[in-house]
Every structure is written in C-alpha cells, then in structure tokens.
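Reminder: ligand-aware prediction takes two inputs, not one.
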Amino acid sequence: MFGTALPAMPPAAYYADPSASRAGLIGLAPMEGVIDVTTRRLLSAQGGLDWVVTEFVRVVDQPLPPRVFHRLCPELAQGAATADGTPVQLQLLGSDPTAMAENARIAVGCGATALDINFGCPAKTVNRHGGGASMLKSPSDIHATVAAVCRAVPDTPVSAKLRLGFEDRQLALQCAAAAVQGGARWLTLHARTRKEGYRPPAHWEWIARIRHHVNVPIVANGDIWTLEDYWQARALSGCRNVMIGRGLLSDPLLAARIRHWQRTGEQLPTTQWAERAAVLRAFAEGLADDLPEKVVVSLIKQWLSLMRQHDTEAAERFVHLRTLRHTDDLLDALDGPATP
Ligand SMILES: Cc1cc2nc3c(=O)[nH]c(=O)nc-3n(C[C@H](O)[C@H](O)[C@H](O)COP(=O)(O)O)c2cc1C
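Here is what comes back for the chain with flavin mononucleotide:
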C-alpha cells in the first residue's frame, strides 16, 4: 500500500483517513511557472489531495543556497505541508549525481521530508544540459542519479517522475527499473514520451506494463480531466494512485469530486463556473500583496488559459478577458456573464 511505501512522509491527510488511502491517493502534479505556493495552498484547500509536488529546483553542478529551496517551497518552513496539512514533496532536476546528492542534503537540511527527481521535463534548455527527459536515453544515468540522492538522504523517501521515453518507448521498462534499483520508493509515470509532448492520448496501458516490471508503487499521470478519465486511467494502468496537473487547474474541485466518488459511489455534479471563478479570485488575492499587478494579471490569464482547454465557460470568458490589464477589471469580468 502507498502508506507503507511512504513511511517518512509527514502525518497528514492520507494517514488520517485510511479509507481514502485504500481507495487510491491523488497527488497534485508539479508544474513549473504554474503551480507555485499559492496554487498549492488553494488547490489543496479544495480537498481530495493527498500530497503536492513543487516545481523543480534546477541543479547544475554546484550546491544551491538554502534560499533557493525556501523560495520555491516556502512550505519548508512549516513542516513541508500546506496550510491544511497536505504534504509537500520537493522536486529536484539535474544530471550530475554528485551535485544532486549535495543539493538533496541541503534540501533536507532546509526541511524537505520527501524528494522527487524529475526525469520528464521536455524543455530544450533543460535537455541540452542532460537533465529532465533527456535522462530517459540512459537508464544507467537515471540509476546513478537516483542512487546518489538516496545515499545522500537515506532517511528521506525519494521518488522519480518519468515519461515513457525520449523519442520512443524502447527504454521505458529499463528506465523505470533503473530508478527503482537506484532506490526510488515509488515512481510517477507520465504516460507519454518526450516527443509526444502533451498531445493526447496518454498511454495508460503502458503504465500497466511497467507496473508489472517493478516492485514499488506506481502513480499514474497524464490526461485525467474528469471522473471518467480517472477511472479509465486506473482501470488501464492498474494503478490505485494518480497524479493530476492540468485537470486540477481546469477543475479545481476535481480531486474533491473524485474523493467523494471513491467514498460514496455518488457523482457530484460538474463544477459550476462560479466555483471556478471563486478559486481564480482567491488566487488573485493570494498574489496581490507580493507581486506587481502586471504579473498578477498575467498569472490569472495563464490559469484561465489552462482552464479554457476543457471548459467552454472559461474559453468564452478568455476571449474578452485577454485584453484586460487590471486585476479588478479581470475579477469583475470573471464574475460577469460569459459574453458581455
Ligand atoms: C506548464 C507545465 C509545467 C510543468 N512543470 C513540471 C515540473 O516542474 N516538473 C515535472 O515533473 N513535471 C512538470 N510538468 C508535467 C506535469 O507534472 C504532468 O506530468 C503533465 O502535465 C501531465 O499531467 P496532466 O495531464 O495531469 O497535466 C509540467 C507540465 C506543464 C503543462
């Protein structure tokens, strides 16, 4: 069970509710430039999330100052949990085992209670330096990196997040096995290659193949937008646990709705626009004190833009909201009719 696979995670939501753990855990996916501390707080407050993961801390070849870890993960100062107690896992990205190990030690010294290693980032700038998805070309490099991190922080659970491959899926099983042999306590699998980017479909059935090949829990990830997707991803991957990114930005209540379904078998109605707009408003309010208005406006638009991919109400509003420049105008328009 996941609970036993994550013994050192802080006591939090899923320990408090074993029935939820049995039903299957739900994690919030890391998303660089999108899922920051405010978003993590807001989304975990909607309920249904068992853990969240930070954007990646990029490791090159030097130890990073503690402030870098605290900036990306302010929750380190409060027991590595969000305000409502959801555990926060810190993600590292890098290809130099020595530097990764050193930075893992610093992260744990700063308060990290669980680490994840990114082997999925498709960004060219990252891949050029051998990090993220480019590591999927070399299972032995994955092994070396995970093993170095695990050795450096033996009392801290370390997981790995992988795609199915770089160009193709030929090394999918080897990469997963390498991460596990290196000491990863669980794997999160984004069911696409780097070449496939974010294009549907996610190949959940490939997760099932990998699951049979390794002996640690697997978290299925990719393209879970609805309750139906959730069950299909579970059925095809055979995984109990999932991680959701864009689906939770599109419908911030998705995890809560899945949890309700797990517990009662009852499907809650689709999340109303007013509920989505309330989350965007809270997001704007959460950012307003710390960031210039221009940045707040662009972050609200970024979230709305992700929402619109699966939500016609958001799509209709995005058309006229995209030209607005002031937070108040944006928030008024969010509360107003879809077509003014
Ligand atoms: C804008 C954006 C940023 C992302 N940043 C990260 C990241 O920092 N670390 C990581 O492991 N994955 C990152 N991902 C991948 C997601 O965690 C996730 O694997 C992917 O979006 C598929 O899941 P989803 O369909 O539920 O969104 C990012 C994805 C997007 C769209």
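Confidence is low (pLDDT under 50) at residues 1-21. The radius of gyration is 19 Å. We will return to this case in the review session.
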